[in-house]
Amino acid sequence: METTTDKKVKNANPKTLHISGAEAVIRCLLAEDANLVYGYPGGAIMPIYDELYKFQDQLHHVLTRHEQGATHAAQGFARTSGKVGVALATSGPGATNLVTGIADAQIDSTPMVCITGQVASHLLGSDAFQETDIIGISTPVTKWNYQITKASEIPEIMAKAFYIARSGRPGPVLIDITKDAQFEQFDFSYEKCTGIRSYQPYPTLSPESLEEALVLIGQAKKPLVVWGQGVILGRAEEEFKAFVEKSGIPAVWTILGLSALPTEHPSNRGMVGMHGNYAPNLLTNECDLLIAVGMRFDDRVTGDLSTYAKQAKVIHLELDPAEVNKNVMADVVLLSDCKVSLQALTDRIQSKTYPKWIQRFDELDAIERKKVIHSDLNPTKPGLTMGEAVGMINKYSKGDAVIVTDVGQHQMVACRYAKFNQSKSNVTSGGLGTMGFALPAAIGAKMGALDREVVAIIGDGGYQMTIQELGTIFQQQIAVKIVVLNNDFLGMVRQWQQLFFDKRYASTEMVNPDFVMIAQGYQIQAKRVSERKDLDQAVQEMMASDKPYFLEICVEKEGNVFPMIPTGASVSDIRLE
Amino acid sequence: MENKTYTISVYTENNVGLLNRISAIFLKRHINIESFSTSESEIPNVFRFVIVVNMTTEKVIKIVKQIEKQIDVIKAFYHTDEETIFQENALYKVKSSALFEERQIQNIIKQSHANIVTVSPEFFVIEKTGFRNETEQLRKELAPFGLLQFVRSGRISVTKAKMGISEILNTFKNTNT
Fold it and tell me: What is the ipTM for the molecules in this complex?
């Protein structure tokens, strides 16, 4: 057996360790401050798992119940901690099961490093057991990927993987390591990556563009700020707040931008997009200057592009050159880290107020409150609404909880009504719209913010896509609060069927199991509530628990989410009913 | 906006999988590639892809940004035909009897400025470098004599303007040492 002394003797260079590729992977993770990984073992990654066993006092591995769960947990962790999430899987099906989470992380710019085992290099291309071309499969959905076939490549490639995942516009990186490279012994030393010659993650702000932007801001009578996740990813919340406060410009958010500015901040005027607020959508087509900060004009935000903000000048603060002039042509582009560009703008702008323009928001808000919000939050007819459930969570979270959502009606309602006091508090699958995201993401979200309350709000459909992760919550005793808003329907699809397919409810009604019994099977404290009179106490009990807790809230079966901009319609065509 | 022929030139690191990564950008957008070639460039260990597409200016700008966004891509450019010097290369395999029996074929070869690469008792191979219409013209002229095989390379091209890749690489070196 090899001992530490042997290692030293064998070493030509005293700064290196003579170790296996598998041990090198673990040492690279530790060097990158990744002491928490999610994963699932299997044949081709066993040497790395063997090292995880030896390093378990330094590196915590969380066994999820499916590899998809490992990616979403890593994403949840990245979103609340601001660090790189790490997921491990074996070759073949282990690797392909990561793909949904990788695609989700790619479109939502989440820093993640996935490590997959691969069959031994001499077997590559032979259709060996559990061989799959994960490099080929993951190429379109990764920021970068690489297959390692020699142990000596591990330190440099792992360093690059973390650097690429976290720098610039973050994203997922996949490293595929053949089994023989994991076994191979080599002289290990580690150096962090500080730059790659073909990759410039932080463009320099152009002083000319800054001047042009200042002129447009100075001239604007009805300016509007639309911010996205770039503010959070750029750690620019303070700079953003200072900018909106000094400029006096009303600010509205995309779904992933949510929580970057507190809900109660006077400049925060709500959400844009398909189920966003009335004023932000309508006034997008009334403003004379649109200042887009770290957002990418997704089609769910813009609706019909040919009628989107055509009257307005556009300033786009963006880090990724490929996002500039992609969907909406900008008059001025501030290509830079928004932490830098926001600060530069704030330093130079005049302090201003726009009372008349703000009044337009107040007027439209009043209409939305009367027609939609009031009946969502304070319903009197029988049947609980999703809105009142979220309102009740607000009452006990006081806006301090991390809210993790899945995809569908409950997600839109939660994002519309949940209150947030601090950033990195909204974890949801925005771009990809991955049902099944929330439960595993909540695990990671909690582990990334242990001192915070984490509430997962999930629909009955998405919950059953990754329900097996209750096993992970049980085994790890992760104190997440799981709220299933159950309408026995795939509610969002049903809503569309009602509105656009003459109520032909094709395959959207669900016959659901007893969710409380399932949770209890995992020894998770569980409760069901279906009466308005019981809601307050049920939520209070859940929020008071310091253990994992499951609460099923049975809501009205055919509730709809409004306002709504039908697909392909203009933001001006937003419907309140 | 109308479609135009654009030559996209991409300078990259020499990494396995990069070809797949670049072609995936076209695949995702349902764009057909007219021609594709790759070779080492003027800089050691730096590769150059030459991709020909037919699309609008607006689209080619977006595609080039997506290509440049790839980590291992050093720089990508797009150019119109007027901005580049470009050629294609074609090989024609004809049975040897045609060369000796048909006098006309000798004239065709002479007039087209094609080169004879090899002659054997069974077949001979000629090579022609030029624009698409020139290699195409020769193919049409040889066809009646029985073309055994025909193959044409992708476009290769150099630009009239400077690319400045060495400068980009030097800037990196200087800021990181």
Answer: 0.93
